[in-house]
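Entry: Solute-binding protein family 5 domain-containing protein
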Amino acid sequence: MKFRPRAAAFALLTAAALALGGCSASTDSGSEGQSGTGGTLTIGALVDVKSFDPAQAHIGHYVQYYQAVYDSLLRREADGTLVPMLATKWVYNDDNTQLTLTIRSDVKFSDGTVLDASAVKVNLDRFRQGNGPDASTLKQVSDVSAPDATTVVITLSAADPALLDYLGNADGFIASPAAAAAGGLDTTPVGSGPYTLDKNATVASSTYTFTKTPGYWDPSLQVYDTIVLKPITDTTAMLNALISGQVDAALLTPKTADQAKGAGMTEYTYPTDWQGLLIFDRDGSTVPALANVKVRQAIKYAIDKDALLAQVGKGLGTTTSQVFGKGTPAFDPALDSTYAYDPAKAKQLMADAGYAGGFSVTMPTVSGFFDPALTAGIQQNLSDIGITVNWENIQGSDFVSGLTQGKWPMSWFSLFQGSPWVAVNQIVAPTATYNPDRTTDPEVEKLIGGIQSGSEADQATAAKALNSYLTDQAWFAPFYRPDQVFFTDSQTTTAPQLQQAVPSLYSYAPAK
């Protein structure tokens, strides 16, 4: 996905579990809403699509496959703003437990059937009741109804501040119910999107070709006649494909960026995630020392974040001590500079906590995926304050599942910086995916409640307070927000965007 350590390979094992997004670009080119330019756009994709069935949809690097063939209920602009797509408007009830959507009445699926509210209901039910990687994002949905052809009512068991975000991501892609009932959506997508999969020009796991859908309801999103997505999982191969003209756009790594720039490619840099240590065992059930806040704070002071960013990411990114990202109401710029590298202070905190003699901790590593500079830097920094790291070498396929099952007391990881409620459900709440030990405390519970149920202003206040509290209590030890490095050739422009790992298909256009 977007990761520094052996970027492409490691990205594959992480992309399967994360809800990844991209953030603000330092290069503001590309434009949405152009039409009629024709030609073919070929994009190098870091992952191969596992299934075209939207019930199995995932965001991150998978999103472009689905955007080609499916419309979503809401669409995300390059700046992260949600705008109408299949849903022309939406409104909540007073306590935010019921969302009413108005659905377009002029849309048909590529099989000729009509897209209406009942079709939306079928898709939302399939998504939330299925076993897709993001199915749990609709866990608060208790009922979906379609009282008439253009109205969908989503009823929640409790308020979900991220619901609109989800409906603009994987949860919102809508397929033909007739095609879903017949089976085969995994290889033969039937949507209402701007493009249709050309199976005669498609070779699975090699080349996916999409042709412009005739009579599409929004021709401004059909900038090209043909879109080609080529899965290329090796970073060197991706670089070579871009430079040689096999693809027009590709995500590269800091270690290949200079070659692309030297070949005249256009660079876009933007953050999407934070990278650092997840400290799971905050109750000290496996490593008693980790229950002591001074020990966790010592770990944060012990890490030389600037050195790691320089060695692992070639300096592309921003060091940080907070897990909430820019552009969210939880973000506090002052927290980025807290816990500056100070091994002497870290040693003092260890002594104050009663661990002057140190302790040992086991963390996972994956051969070929973790950059040696990363593991060496972490090991040396923690060793300097008396913490011995025992690396457990595991298979890449076991990494994410091991984290969610709590197999290790702490681990390096990379996580998307989305909205506060997304982050809460990802790493903070007792039921969060990456809180396998289910740790919490009364202050965290109070602030989570404020984010979930308060007014918009109250939610922002609670989110910022939660960020400050988690940073002070050292629940996590973030290192930095690394920059993605995305490239296009000289004939192509795009606009990387907030809360998405790669640019949307809608953001590409021929260079002027």
